[in-house]
Amino acid sequence: MSGATAPAVAFFALAALAPVVVRDAFLLDGLVLILLWGSVAAAWNVAGGYAGQVSLGHSVFFGLGAYSAALLGTRWGLSPWIGLAVGAVLAIAVGFVIGFLSNRLRGPYFVLATIAFSQVLLIVASRWRAFTSGSEGIAVPFRPGFWTLGIADKRVWVYLILALAVGVYLVQLYLERSRRGYQLAAVREDEDAALSLGVPARRLKVAAIAVSAALTAACGALWAQYVGFVDPFYVFSVDLSVRFALGAVLGGIGTALGPFVGAALVTTLETYLRARFGGIGAGLVGIYLIIYGVALIAIVRFAPQGLVPWLGARWRRPAAGTAR
Amino acid sequence: MQVIPQLLVSTILLGGIYALIAVGLTLIFGVMRVVNFAHGEFLMLGMYLAFWAFALLHLDPYATLVLALPVVFAAGWASYRLVMRPVIHASHNVQVFTTVGLSIALQNLALVLWTADSHFVRTSYYAVVVRLGPAVLNLAQAAAFAVAVLATAALFAFMRWSYTGKVMRATAQDRQAASLMGIDTGRVFALTWAVGVTCVGVAGILLAPIYPVYPTVGLQFVLIAYVTVVLGGLGEMAGAVVASLIVAAVEVIGSYTVGTAWKEALYLVLFIAILLLRPAGLFGQRGAETVGA
Predict the structure, then answer these.
(1) To the nearest whole angstrom, how far is the Cα of A294 from the nearest Cα of chain B?
(2) What residue of B is the nearest CA neighbor of A108?
(3) What one-character-per-residue DSSP string does chain B give?
(4) Contacts of B221 in chain A (CB under 8 A)
(5) Domain ranges of chain A
(6) Which whole number is the average pLDDT over A289-296?
(7) Does the structure show a pLDDT above 80 at A278?
(8) Of A286, B63, B117, B270, whose CB neighbour count within 10 A is largest?
(9) Interface pTM, i.e. ipTM
(10) Within a domain: residue B246?
(11) Closest residue of A to B230, CA-based?
């Protein structure tokens, strides 16, 4: 967990320069999605990586953000920014409950609890027809303007989501460099030892989960506005939660840049296969998930720290591989 | 009050099948301390096996069941050797992601090979209904229940009286002591995984004549299995059977009173309530959940 920020600066600078050079809407769309899924994976990483609270129910926060923005917009004509704030507050509330659970449950028990939460919200969103329009989902109307986030220009979206991504990255950087971050690492590595040194372990874990929840909800709200449609079976799915975790684990769990790199790999291959096979063999799109399923198994077995630290180790000590 | 016998019959039939899915999951956890997040995918593969045997070879699912038993067991053993063995002593998180990776890969393999369409095993008897006093029951469901109970009973007998079963229980109690007594724990883990997979594979074959099969079908059943095994106490096989009946009762009574649309919410809320109030489950050791063991 080194503090080297140069690769991250390069990564974000490249993303910032891309819209200047690239005009192709398809590529810009890909970039927005890479930054967005990277941000969610990084938000997941705050709880799953830095606090060590692995959740497979983070879609609950994403869905709360998406639904808040969509519902407040369609029902009361409110700005998605207000929806984003409301979604974040709701996510923090649910995050507190899940955080409370994290103090009682460890390992697989906690994972199962988080899945259960996302499933409850899925059922509420898909069955409470009168309020959420049920399983049909919600089409988010396009209202031009920044306050209503009706933005047609994909370049603007790149910068908007880039700002979000940098924001989440800075939160992670804070966790790597601050006193609280070190305390959290201590709790993750050995909670009893941390407690005996006077570290407020429980409060830190709950706070990390709440922050992670709020950031994930913010991503969900912006995603709903960008994509324009909220489907309960997608936003609250276990698959989506797994996707968040997948990005972080592949790229490097508990590293600040890792989730962005992991999400970029996942999103790029997915987008490519969709464009390649989308029309003729829609089922073939599933190939990318087979690849990532296998990659996940391989990564946790051979390079459990993830790709970014693995590459970093090879970059800094190129001879280390051959010396052995 | 006319409905009470019917609700009772439905609960028992459903509970029997849930029990077979849940004992496989809880057995693997009890011995290996691994929650198998790919459990539902093995169920799905069992259902597809029954479907393809029926569609291509015109084999009745119950004939498939007998013929496929060694195949399912071998597939379980192979998946252990390939995927689980390298991480058996790794951290919980590594194991969680390994089984999640296996789940994603298997689910999407089915999607790519067999598309997302639902398939049905339309046996000649799929709609035959039997009257049993004041209640009625579907023949396929009754048969599935009978076989599931037999299989579960066989597993219990195996664990209780066979030497191998005793070895597995010894490993569950204390793997270090077991290996000091000369038990090859690596083989026990492989066997446990294969037996657990066989249970859920058999359950899949039994479910094929009742429910349609599609790549993500495992999720709905495995969610119920998670609720069941935690309610019964993770690793407790008898607890899992009792919990299966409780969960089935919640589902059956829930469908009757609040409607099928909200029945899943009922057992999930029950699940969260158990996790909050008594995470060790009804029959589990108190405190197991906080050491994560």
Answers:
(1) 6
(2) B35
(3) -THHHHHHHHHHHHHHHHHHHHHHHHHHHHHH----TTHHHHHHHHHHHHHHHHHHH---HHHHHHHHHHHHHHHHHHHIIIIIGGGTTS-HHHHHHHHHHHHHHHHHHHHHHH-S--B----TTTT-EEEETTEEEEHHHHHHHHHHHHHHHHHHHHHHHSHHHHHHHHHHH-HHHHHHTT--HHHHHHHHHHHHHHHHHHHHHHHTTTS-B-TTHHHHHHHHHHHHHHHH-TT-HHHHHHHHHHHHHHHHHHHHHT-HHHHHHHHHHHHHHHHHH-TTTTTSPTTTTTTT-
(4) none
(5) 6-237
(6) 87
(7) no
(8) A286
(9) 0.86
(10) yes
(11) A109
Note the pLDDT of residue B293.
Answer: 43
Domain total for chain B? 1
Across the interface, whether the CB atoms of A105 and B290 are under 8 A apart is answered: yes
Query: What's the domain range around B144?
Result: 3-277
A16 to chain B nearest CA, in Å? 33
When scoring B87, B96, B258, B278 by the number of chain A Cβ atoms within 10 A, the one with the most, hence best to mutate, is: B96
Residue B220 lies in a domain: yes
In a domain, B288, yes or no: no
B24-56 confidence digits (pLDDT tens): 999 998 898 888 999 999 999 999 999 999 999
Report the CATH number at residue B32: 1.10.3470
Q: List chain A residues with CB under 8 Å of B225.
A: none
pLDDT (tens digit, 9 = 90+) per residue, B259-271? 777 778 888 888 8
Contact A300 B101 (CB under 8 A): yes
- Say if B286 falls within a structural domain: no
